[in-house]
Amino acid sequence: MSEYVLRVKGICKAFSGVYALNGVNIDIRQGEIHCLAGENGCGKSTLINIISGVYSRDSGEIELNGRQYKRINPAQAIEEGVQVIYQDFAVFPNLTVKENLSVSTMVSGHKKIMNWKESERIARQALDLIGVDIDLEKEVGEISVADKQLVAICRALINDARLLIMDEPTTALTKKEVRTLFKTVMKLKEKGLSILFVSHKLDEVFEICDRYTILRNGRNVLTNSVEKLDNESFAYYMTGRRFSNEKFAAAKKGDTPALEVKDLAVEGAFSDVSFALYPGEIVSVVGLLGSGRTELALTLFGIQKASAGKIIVCGKQIQMGQVADAVKAGIGYVPEDRLTEGLFMKQSIGDNLIISMIENLADKMGILDRKRMKREKQSASSKMKIKCPNLEQAVETLSGGNQQRVVLGKWIARDMDVLILNGPTVGVDIGSKYDIHQVLRELADAGMGILMISDDLPEVLAVSNRGFVLKNGRISAHFETDKISAEALTEMIGV
Amino acid sequence: MQKNNQNRNKMLMFYQKDKTFFQLVIIAVIVFAAVAFMKPEKFLTSENMLSMLAQFPQFGIMTFSVMLAMLLGGIDLSVVAIANLSSITAAFIMTGSWGQGKSGTVVILAGVAAAALTGAAAGWINGVVVYHFRVPAMLATIGTAQVFQGISIAVTQGKAISGLPGAYSEIGRLDMGGVLPIPFLVFAICVLALSFLLNRTTFGSNIYMLGTNRKAAEYSGLKVRAYTLKVFILGGILAAVGGLVMMSRTNSAKADYGDAYTLQCVMIAILGGVDAEGGAGKVRGVAVAVLIVQFIASAINMFPALNTYTKTLIWGLTLIVVMIWRMFSGASHRNR
Predict the structure, then answer these.
(1) Are A344 and B279 in contact (CB < 8 Å)?
(2) Which is deepest, A91, A113, A280, A436, by most CB within 10 Å?
């Protein structure tokens, strides 16, 4: 048997003339945990799809368990023991755990009649392989994300996996769940399985992987063992850029608060929330899930109705409970789920950028001024440094990082006084994260007041100048970022 | 040489910008040529051209009503019911005792206004059911269609109302300068007005955005409720206009006129490039699709061998072919 489960040499793949992969090599040893890293759009997913036989490659060699393949189809890949755990897990949400685990064995056994006892035995056996216990009778749609993932892993195992490919498995997990997942992965390694672990989070790579391969723009940048790796060079290899770790000294500009909140309350979510946000400041809101932070943002933006309190923007009290009023008063909101709640994917980049200001681009009859529209689209896109050949193409054709810029861009086009961000860089790769932070700093410098809800404490410390902690719906503490450490902040947030 | 290239590039970009439209124009030309080739003695006559121009406006205008609902990601299966209810209202006013002794123009205008109001009210009801009660548009409008048709049947007791003022039924027959039938003019005005509204105003632009992603629209400060209601009200008015045109051509109003139009309108809208998921579709594409369907309909009528029974079959096949074509062109479009 070959030393390598998988060897891939000089793989090229182009989509309508654009190279997604351009001569990529990767090899994975028996019983190795190998990390595949790279920014969004670097070709990671394409590579996975080629290995698992979903896409056919244009040129290059694939060798699985010592056997050469010119063209590999999904059935052959499975035969060779390649199993992919996709980000959405590809489980059947409306079937029970038992059915999910036994369905492929049942189908490949050409059974026409469901044998429930047999099915239960297969499912139980599968769970025992990694030593977890999940209720077999529950529908998969109802169990937690982490459990869904375990079900997907078990399903891969009973299909005789030799190479398990996990596509960003930790994105949707809590810290505790990540720990459990890592334990499982180590167990699989001990059993001799090889794992291709797709991730762009350095700490994960460091903790669990033996070697790593970094891709950038469809080419190999580097393959090495993890010992010779540090944060800065990892970021550099992924993005090809050097980042400075400067801290931002946001400075208050002017004495009239951009946003002032007095005794704001929403029944069942938070109460007695009062604070002021001055132009030029970036203020962080930290707190656990359920501390009322998202409700606070939604209330400020008029999506939820407040049961008490006042919101004052630039000295003027605003009508609460209507998004249109909040926008008119100068408040912009970037939702947590930015891509699905913040973007019109099928529409053009330009139209997305001007959506929040479109009423200002029309005359009294509502007839649009096309020249001004064009000008505004152009100015917003250059302000946000969006890379695209043509502003008329659909947003969905942009890379993830550029899509993030469009979400921010639609409020920048309108010159808002207050911008509220909910988890501004969740799920964003290093390069785009840095860019988003840069944009936030520029906006604050230009006099906007920014309220940022974030879980990412290094981000809170690097980007904002001060902040407050929400705990059980009340402000429990205020802090200034240059006088506090991440550890102290963690303590303040509590568990 | 270089200029030539530039020109070609410009044309290519123009084509890329609205592929669907150009494909539709090509299909229209092909269908027209094919029918003209097979039956030149019947098809290529001025009588036939004039009668086609007078026939399609009624379902063409109703198609725009369906298109509007589809732009929001919904559908409107109650257009024909609204059209009939509106024309019945108009017919009551035009033939009733209220108009006795008043001038013909006043009576006709009052009837038209009443029809438009009825259409708007019916559209508003659709909008309320869809927005406030969150009923999927398809189910909501199947239900309201039954209600509207039920009212129509109840008030007319299932009979046709005839005896409209002579001046009104003239409209359906009159040709402007012997060339353009009035129904066609009405259709043309609808096309121009609707294109302007959808392409050049904030209202239109926002409809497309709202249809693409309702949540994002809400988070961008769009007044989702107002837009939804306005779109359905406008759709109701268009349905009423379609009904008025139909009434002028049949010289009467009845609860079940144009029953077959409901699905035909949906088919034309999809053929015309309206995305059933919402947020995409152009008036000019739909207008060309209306022409294509009229050509096919006229062609079927020119073969007496194809009786009414096979007609349904042919429409069904056309519908399936259209869907498959849309799936393929839609897929290639989305495939970056």
Answers:
(1) yes
(2) A436
- Best CA proximity match to A299, nearest among A266, A272, A332: A266
Q: Report helix, strand and coil shares of chain B as percent, to nearest 5.
A: 80, 0, 20
Look up residue A139 and give its two tokens.
Answer: 């529908």
Q: Which residue of B has its CA nearest to A346?
A: B212
Q: Extract the tokens encoding B86.
A: 């509106």
Assigned token pair, A487:
């550890």
Identify residues of B whose CB sits under 8 angstroms from chain A CBs.
Answer: 17, 200-203, 205-206, 208-209, 212-213, 215-223, 275, 279-280, 334-336
pTM given for the model: 0.79
- C-alpha distance from residue A197 to each of A44, A207, A403, A465 (Å): 11, 12, 25, 36
Q: Is A197 helix (H, G, I), strand (E, B) or coil?
A: strand
φ, ψ of residue B105 in degrees (nearest 5): -60, -45
Give this complex's ipTM. Answer: 0.82
Tell whether A55 is within 8 A of chain B (Cβ): no
Residue A354 in this model has a pLDDT that exceeds 70: yes
Express each pLDDT in B120-130 by its tens digit.
Answer: 999 999 999 99
Over residues B264-296, the pLDDT tens digits come to: 899 899 889 898 888 999 999 999 999 999 998
Provide the pLDDT for residue B331. Answer: 43
CB neighbour list of residue A47: distance below 8 Å, 6 or more residues apart = A8, A11, A21, A24, A26, A36, A215
Given CATH 1.10.3470, say whether it is the number of domain B38-329. yes
